[in-house]
Specification:
By secondary structure, the protein is of the alpha/beta class. It has helices spanning about 5-15, 75-90, 110-135, 145-160, 235-240, 250-265, 275-280, and strands spanning about 30-35, 45, 60-65, 90-100, 140-145, 160-170, 190-195, 215-220, 270-275, 290, 300-305, 315-325, 330-340, 345-350, 365-370, 380-390, 400-410, 410-425, 430, 435. It has two domains: about 5-310, Rossmann fold, CATH 3.40.50.1820; about 320-435, PLAT/LH2 domain (Lipoxygenase-1), CATH 2.60.60.
Length: about 425
C-alpha cells in the first residue's frame, strides 16, 4: 500500500499526524500570469523578479488558481478552463499556481505538509505585486481544489485580507485537526465559499471536509457521492491493501471544479438553504436560495443543498415529486428514475420500506427530483420500481397501488402517473404530461 494511503488511513481512524518534511525550495513553486492580452501565452512571474511584468495591471481584479494532489498545473484541463472562462467574464490578472513536484505521488503526507510552504510562497508573490504593482487585497480572489484549497487558506492567512477564497472540495486527510493557520477557514478572506462533493470518512472513499469551512458552503447531492459517480465503499473495504489515491472516488472529488466551471457560464446553479440534506430531499426548505460558484451571493450565508443531473450539463431544476399511495398498505422501497437520453438514470427513493410502520393507504410522500432545465420532467421518461423488503412480507406486500405521482417544478405541475399498480421488482415506465394529476 502506498505510504500516502497508510498515513491518511491512520489520520482518519486515529487522528494521528504522520506528516514529515520534504524540504521544499522556492523553485518548486511557479506562478504563471495570464491576461486578456496573453491568455494563450502565459509568462512566469516571481517575487524575486527585478521588474514587474507589463502584462500585470494592479487596477484589475487578480484571480489565482491552485491544483490538487498528483496534478500538474501546466497541463490541468480544469485550471485552463477556469482561466479562460474568468478572462471571458472579466478583465483580470489570472495567476496559475503550479507545484507539481511537491504534489507528486505517492507521498500524500509530504504534499499535505508542503501546502503551508506553497501558500506562503503565494502570499510573498501577492505582497510583491501589492508593493510594486498596486495590487489591492480587496481585488484578490483565490481558487483552490483539494490540497490547493488548503494552499489558498494559508495564502489568505498570510496576505491580509484577500477579498474571496473559493475552496473546491478542500482536502481533509491530515487537515482535519490542523491549526487554522494551516488550513482553509472563514478568517482567511473577507468571504470564503466552499463546494463539497466528496466529503466524509476516508474508508468510505471520501477525501474532503464534511463540516462547513466557509461563510457559504454548498453540498451538491449531499456533498458525499455525486450522481453518475461510482460509490466506492465496497471496493475500498474489499481492496484496501491495493488501494491508491487514484482509486478513492476521484470522480466525486473532481466534480467540484467541474461544477465551478459550469457556474462561470451561467448564474443558475441554485442551492437551497437547509439544516440538512434530508430536509432538502423531503422538499422542506425551498424558499431561500443561493448560487453555487462564481456568482454566489456573499450576503446570504449558510449551508445550501441541491441535486444535480448524472452528467453534463449538471445543473438541474429541483422538482418536488409527490406520491399518493392507493388503497393498499406497503412496506417496500419505491424508486423513481428520471431517464434522460445520453446519461445515467437520475434516481431517488420516494418510499423507504424500513420505516417503523407500514405505509398506510392514502399516505403521501414527497421527494426532490432533479430534472433538466430544458423541458423539465415532461421531456423525460420516468421509471417507477417497487422493491419489497422480505422481512416485512404480509398481505398485499408484493405490490403497491399508486393513486398518483405529481411533480411540481417551481409551481408548474406535471403528472407522471394517475392510478397504477406496481409489482415487486418489475419497473414500469411512464411519460409525464403537463398539468396536475
Amino acid at each position: 500500500m502506498a505510504s500516502a494511503v497508510v498515513c491518511a488511513v491512520l489520520v482518519g481512524l486515529l487522528h494521528l499526524s504522520c506528516a514529515s518534511q520534504s524540504d521544499p525550495v522556492p523553485e518548486d513553486v511557479s506562478f504563471t500570469l495570464f491576461s486578456r492580452s496573453n491568455r494563450n501565452d502565459g509568462v512566469d512571474i516571481h517575487y524575486t523578479d527585478t521588474s514587474l511584468d507589463p502584462f500585470f495591471d494592479g487596477t484589475r481584479r487578480t484571480v489565482a488558481i491552485a491544483h490538487g494532489f498528483q496534478e500538474d498545473g501546466y497541463n490541468s484541463v480544469w485550471m485552463n478552463a477556469v482561466k479562460d472562462l474568468v478572462l471571458d467574464v472579466i478583465d483580470a490578472n489570472v495567476i496559475r499556481v503550479n507545484f507539481k513536484t511537491l504534489a507528486a505521488a505517492p507521498r500524500y503526507d509530504l504534499a499535505a505538509a508542503d501546502t503551508s510552504f506553497i501558500g506562503k510562497e503565494l502570499a510573498s508573490l501577492l505582497n510583491d505585486l501589492k508593493r510594486r504593482g498596486g495590487l489591492s487585497p480587496s481585488e484578490v480572489h483565490l481558487i483552490g481544489f483539494s490540497l490547493g484549497a488548503q494552499v489558498m487558506g494559508v495564502a489568505g492567512h498570510n496576505f491580509k485580507t484577500v477579498d474571496r477564497i473559493t475552496g473546491l472540495d478542500p482536502a481533509y486527510p491530515l487537515f482535519g485537526e490542523a491549526p487554522l493557520q494551516d488550513r482553509l477557514d472563514p478568517s482567511d478572506a473577507s468571504f470564503v465559499d466552499v463546494i463539497h462533493t466528496n466529503s466524509g470518512p476516508l474508508l468510505t472513499g471520501h477525501l474532503s471536509f464534511l463540516d462547513p469551512v466557509g461563510h457559504v458552503d454548498f453540498y451538491p447531492c449531499g456533498g458525499h457521492d455525486q450522481r453518475g459517480c461510482p460509490k466506492l465503499i465496497d471496493e475500498v473495504l474489499e481492496n484496501l491493501a491495493d488501494l491508491t489515491l487514484d482509486d478513492i472516488d476521484a470522480c466525486s472529488h473532481s466534480r467540484a471544479p467541474e461544477y465551478f466551471i459550469q457556474s462561470l457560464s451561467a448564474n443558475d446553479f441554485l442551492g437551497f438553504k437547509c439544516a440538512s440534506y434530508e430536509d432538502f430531499e423531503r422538499g422542506d426548505c425551498l424558499s431561500v436560495t443561493n448560487t453555487l460558484g462564481w456568482y454566489v451571493d456573499r450576503n446570504n450565508e449558510g449551508t445550501f443543498y441541491m441535486d444535480t443531473l448524472t452528467g453534463a450539463p449538471f445543473v438541474a431544476l429541483q422538482a418536488t415529486a409527490t406520491l399518493t399511495v392507493g388503497s393498499t398498505e406497503a412496506h417496500g422501497d419505491l424508486f423513481l428514475r428520471v431517464k434522460i437520453s445520453g446519461m445515467e438514470d437520475n434516481e431517488c427513493q420516494i418510499l423507504n420500506g424500513w420505516e417503523r410502520e407500514r405505509i398506510q393507504p392514502g399516505s403521501v410522500r414527497t421527494h426532490i427530483v432533479p430534472v433538466p432545465q430544458n423541458g423539465g420532467i415532461t421531456s423525460t421518461q420516468v421509471e417507477l420500481e417497487y422493491v419489497v423488503n422480505d422481512l416485512w412480507i404480509g398481505s398485499n406486500s408484493y405490490s403497491i397501488e399508486i393513486a398518483s405521482v405529481d411533480v411540481d417544478t417551481y409551481g408548474s405541475h406535471s403528472c407522471v402517473v394517475s392510478s397504477a399498480t406496481l409489482q415487486n421488482g418489475v419497473p414500469r415506465t411512464f411519460s409525464p404530461s403537463a398539468g396536475s394529476c
